[in-house]
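explain this:
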Amino acid sequence: GLIEVVLVAWVVRQLRTLQRYINDSSYVRIGSWWIISLTLITPVLLIGITAFNIYTELTTPYEGYPASGLILLGGGVAAAVIVVGFIFQSIRGTERREVA
């Protein structure tokens, strides 16, 4: 969520366009508070929550397991899934199948 809100609010910088689209296509109207929330409040809160969770996990590991095992099996599996996803995306099939 943190990466997504930072990308949308700070990298893409199309919040005004997105706001106009939402206001035109929805019954709910959003104002300037929405942009302030996405650019300032939400990232600060998510950074705080993430930092607290990382600190808690490193100081009191889950169920008494060693932190190294949790990092390897938790973070390692998450990283492996991302790498495998990129590998599968880059593999292109050489056969063409025609739909009858």
